[in-house]
Amino acid sequence: MNTILALAGVVIMELYRRKDFYVLFVLTVLITLVMASLSFFHDTGIVRYVKEIALLLIWVSALVIAVGTTARQIHAERENRTIFPLLAKPVTRGQVIVGKFLGCWLACGLALVVFYLFFGVISGSREHYWPVLSLFQAFWLQWVMLGIVVAFVLLGSVVFAAPSSNATISFIVVFGLLLLGGHLNQVALQQPEPLRSVIYTIYFVIPHLEWYDVRDLVIYDWNRVPWVDCALATVYAGVYSALLLFGAWLVFRRKALNL
Amino acid sequence: METIVETRNLRVEYRARDASSGKKLALKDLNLKVGAGEVFGFLGPNGAGKTTTMNVLLGFVNATSGAAFLFGVDVREPIARQRIGYLPELTYYYKFLTAEELLRFYARIFGIPRAQADQRIDQLLKLVELEPARRRPIKTYSKGMQQRVGLAQALINNPDLLILDEPTSGLDPLGRMKVREIIQRLKNEGKTVFFSSHELGEVETVCDRVAIINQGELKVEGRVAELIEKHQANLERIFLNIIGYQT
Amino acid sequence: MSKLLSALILALLLAGCFSLATVLQQRAPHWSRRAQSDNVLKMVFGDGRRFLADGFFRKADVSFHSGFYPTIFDQANASQDTRHLTAKEGEPEAEEHEKQMNFLGPPRDWIERFGRHFAVTTHTHLEGKNEREILPWLKVAAELDPQKIETYTVSAYWLRDLGKYKEAEAFLREGMRNNPESYEILFELGRLYSENLHEPARARNVWELALRRWSDQQAAGKKPDLRDLDLIAVFLARLEENDGHPARALELLHIAQKASPNPQALQPQIDDLKRQLAGQAPSPAPSSH
Q1: What's the predicted TM-score (pTM) here?
Q2: What is the pLDDT of residues C232-249, one digit of tens each?
Q3: Is the bond preceding residue B88 a cis peptide, omega within 30 degrees?
Q4: Given a contact as 3+ CB pairs under 8 Å, which chains touch A?
Q5: Which residue of A has its CA nearest to C167?
């Protein structure tokens, strides 16, 4: 465990020493503040559009951080040859995979905390109330979803040659899952067999990332998701992340270390 | 004498980059033994199989057949590397870390308690003369400084076996002298050093025993003094004769 | 020296381009019949802005429904009409909308069943002054596509409801500048004058103009919506009746009856006006709008 935590620590240090997070955070803040400063029909009480824009920016930024940070981890270790002094220590390749996953996921979590604190300040300053539990739930679900994304990108990083191709494919897949994943059953039912069965199988196999997008519940002040469902979704994400990490380990253990 | 490094009929085959060439034999039934407290030189021309041997010992590459052991433990077990230190030929470390952070990271992997790690880091940074630069990111270091960081990380766990791949490569004469001093000090402490080098003069000075490998096969092995006496030539001449170079 | 020369050549080219642009800018309006734009958004997005404007208008609708909205996969089952945005409860448009927003249906599998716990699944409309939340999206939609008339009429409807009469008038007048032929905007403006600002004379002028615009469009073969003619005529008729002009009111109700999908509903009012004109006392007439 010490080894895994040590590896995770290095990933987190890398995140806050690179510019990515700061650039994304400053952009999010700037755009949100500019939007919030606008007055529509001399009404300063309109708040939901600000929440919507801020949450959209948070989601996009978090995905960029998750995919961008994770896509370069294994490749950078191999390209920079830092993998050699690392594996010359009593470290297994499995520990490298898990350590990188934990580091990237925790890094995403830290970034999300900052983003959501900012969001809380902005929305609270206009609505004059702080739905702390709702925000926490939205944060938790998004963070847990990013675990699946990080695990997926980590698998891609041991399969694909270049981090850029891994990142591109990962973005396409993640956005595809978010936008279309939940509707594949409708698409399937409109198709003739055997295409219907194929699409329905894909529908059951893919991770349903759209569950974790509860922005509408936050923006429009709906009731929270029942905590039991939240817990089940967390377990679901944990299982998928574990499966993807297992796949990454299976590929990585046979991989040559130099590029 | 305890055997620290041992290979038994070690065979490593690679698939050649050119598919029509079939498989490439990197190591052919290598049998090697290094005893405790020895400084062992591992020599050979480029492509002889030195790095492949080291890669197998360090667990980077799996042998096609045969076995390799460190401290009697199969090299495929991570615990085999608990008591070793490794300095690669090309020293690249996490550029965004400082020397201190890098050493602390590796110390944590070895499970060294914090207080002990702090002490060890101070000692090592003083030894490799990186004390003034300990809090600067490694990306600001010169090549020589990076090499010294490499040496420090190889020694962080006070290893009983040090594996060095071309340790003086790229160093100025002063740097090379310091590396030789460190190797000598380790020997005096009873540590085992296994290193590959092209600097035959250095090998002759520092090593107790050497092995010369060519085209994946062990050609000669023995004490330096004995080899020189037997072949009536210096190490360079012996090396050239073995690899088939006629002057 | 060569760096200086390159910089000079670049400066010369930039100056040349700038001069050419100032010359062409005067001639450019004649090359295209499209409405000229001084708006950066329109310059940047081109015709794609209409697509974006539709998106933002839909966003306003989503906001009106607090996130409950059909996806493109549900669109076939759901309403494409946006009249519900200004329809009151009990009105036919509202009832039709209620039926069509029942697009979800029972979940098809456990994944969909579980997923509904994380989504908005209740059909509601914003109320109690929260309707202002849709205004930013409508404003952006109007900026992107000033020719989308619905944006102005829906916005004005809600601005009136929120008591922002000055803002409603300003926005409608902006809509009129961008769409001088629009009778819909004129009708909405008339409602503002009549119901909120209590200026019947201005309302009459504007509604009469709206009627003329409607007729002009029909004469030009553009097939304007008969429901709009019905509405304009009925509102104007009510105004004329209240102002003591029953003859004109009757004339307008006849126009409305020809356009109305339910002409029988107007008959009692028509009969009432006829009796007035004939000098008899009015009987209570059922309200049809």
Answers
A1: 0.86
A2: 999 999 999 999 889 999
A3: no
A4: B, C
A5: A41
